């Protein structure tokens, strides 16, 4: 599908950016991928999104949807097609302070959300970066700094305003469009364009925040001790571990966040982590949640991070899996490996309650490799880990093939996702597919 841009409808006048426009160079690309689209549309309403979808179809142009442009597969841009960039749809409103219900448009960034909600004493656990878009996280999952306390971002979505590929605007909630709500919470990218979400936020202002640096032994025993501590920890504690290569082994940089502003709760939650190895650097503070997804994260996306990422979920951490993680992060061509603690509230929803069905796993392992040899480096690093994987999270995946789909949506969930994508998008306008 690669046509020519047709006549621009009146409602999109001034909102379509083509290569001759001086705005084009900052709109063409995403974080990982330089794009050369025929046009970027900047809708200001759901109606505009519908018009943009119709323009693409009438012009025979392939569509890319973009909220924050941080997607790891580069699907937020394309070559020769039409990009619908939702950045102008970025309102953040508290609908009902009593029930903590907020309405957030898909083009907002999580730094903006954190800042806007902080003035109401509210927060949403989203991800670790303030520049990531609401639309990508809230249609895929959302493994944030408070994931064990809050669960995934999508666990708290109560309604989604969607523009279907045929241009129709629909509000999906549990009563009126339960199937659409089900698929938008975890596999939204193939069903429709989410323009806004109603999400239940949490009461939260300040959090405990600690950073630890420690050596990791080649057998991964340190990582196993970390996993054991997390398994016994209260939900308030969530951690992210970065493994950095130190020749034949690795060092771990742990960020721990405690969902409390009470120093003794924070201390009690953090203390067991101090026993897992000889900690070389440690610091702990109570900080506003906004400092974890700060405004200075906001930046333009110009394809500045050419890279490839994959991930897998782990149930427990066996000795073999722990050793494979250290191997992936060390040696002559290491991958950049991150671990996120799951469990706690991520296990609460019934697996079948939404398209993200992974509700028993304990760890999310993410591996990235950077240009120029990103494909081969990642493939080699991931090989020893692959046998230990128990499902995957769609948002930390660069591949757009059937194998990646099957890891994210295994078994009957995959069948239901495919059926619903066909139902809402019979022409396959939004269906994820390998880059042209
Ligand atoms: C630096 C960095 C840090 C990250 N940290 C985290 C983290 O801590 N936790 C976490 O869970 N994830 C994290 N991610 C992954 C992130 O969830 C995904 O990359 C997500 O897709 C980014 O959302 P976006 O709106 O910025 O992406 P975009 O590039 O705008 O979109 C990516 C794709 O998502 C789909 N999509 C986006 N918006 C919509 C919409 N409104 N309606 C329908 N489909 C849509 C489309 O298929 C689109 O092509 C991180 C990514 C990066 C690059």
From TrEMBL:
Residue ranges constituting the FAD-binding PCMH-type domain according to the UniProt record: 33-204
Coiled-coil stretches: none
Cofactor: FAD
Keywords on record: FAD, Flavoprotein, Oxidoreductase
Similarity comment: family membership: Belongs to the oxygen-dependent FAD-linked oxidoreductase family.
Protein name: FAD-dependent oxidoreductase
Organism: Streptomyces sp. 900116325
């Amino acid at each position: 599908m690669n046509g020519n841009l047709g006549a621009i409808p009146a409602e999109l006048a001034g909102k379509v950016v083509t290569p001759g426009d001086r705005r084009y160079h900052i709109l063409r690309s995403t974080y990982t991928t330089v794009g050369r689209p025929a046009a970027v549309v900047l809708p200001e309403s759901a109606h505009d999104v519908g018009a943009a979808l119709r323009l693409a179809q009438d012009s025979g142009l392939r569509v890319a949807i973009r909220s924050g442009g941080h997607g790891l597969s580069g699907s937020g841009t394309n070559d020769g097609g039409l990009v619908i960039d939702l950045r102008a749809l970025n309102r953040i409103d508290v609908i009902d302070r009593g029930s903590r219900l907020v309405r957030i448009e898909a083009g907002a960034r999580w730094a903006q959300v954190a800042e806007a909600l902080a003035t109401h004493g509210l927060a949403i656990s989203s991800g670790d970066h303030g520049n990531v878009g609401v639309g990508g996280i809230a249609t895929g999952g959302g493994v944030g700094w408070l994931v064990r306390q809050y669960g995934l971002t999508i666990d708290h979505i109560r309604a989604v305003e969607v523009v279907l590929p045929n241009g129709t605007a629909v509000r999906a909630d549990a009563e009126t469009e339960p199937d659409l709500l089900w698929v938008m919470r975890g596999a939204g990218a193939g069903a429709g364009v989410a323009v806004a979400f109603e999400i239940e936020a949490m009461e939260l202002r300040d959090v405990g925040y600690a950073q630890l640096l420690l050596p990791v032994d080649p057998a991964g025993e340190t990582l196993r001790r970390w996993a054991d501590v997390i398994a016994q920890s209260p939900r308030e504690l969530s951690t992210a571990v970065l493994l950095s290569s130190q020749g034949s082994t690795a060092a771990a940089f742990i960020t721990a966040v405690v969902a409390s502003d009470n120093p003794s709760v924070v201390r009690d939650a953090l203390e067991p982590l101090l026993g897992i190895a000889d900690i070389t650097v440690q610091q702990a503070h109570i900080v506003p949640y906004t400092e974890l997804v700060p405004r200075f994260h906001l930046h333009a996306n110009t394809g500045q991070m050419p890279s490839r990422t994959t991930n897998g979920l782990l149930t427990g951490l066996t000795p073999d899996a722990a050793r494979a993680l250290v191997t992936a992060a060390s040696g002559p061509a290491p991958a950049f490996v991150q671990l996120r603690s799951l469990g706690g509230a991520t296990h609460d929803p019934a697996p079948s309650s939404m398209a993200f069905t992974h509700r028993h796993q304990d760890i999310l392992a993410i591996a990235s490799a950077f240009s120029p040899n990103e494909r081969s480096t990642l493939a080699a690093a991931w090989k020893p880990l692959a046998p230990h994987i128990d499902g995957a999270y769609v948002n930390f995946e660069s591949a757009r093939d059937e194998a990646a789909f099957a890891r994210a949506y295994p078994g009957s969930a995959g069948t239901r996702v495919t059926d619903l994508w066909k139902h809402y998008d019979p022409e396959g306008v939004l269906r994820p597919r390998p880059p042209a």
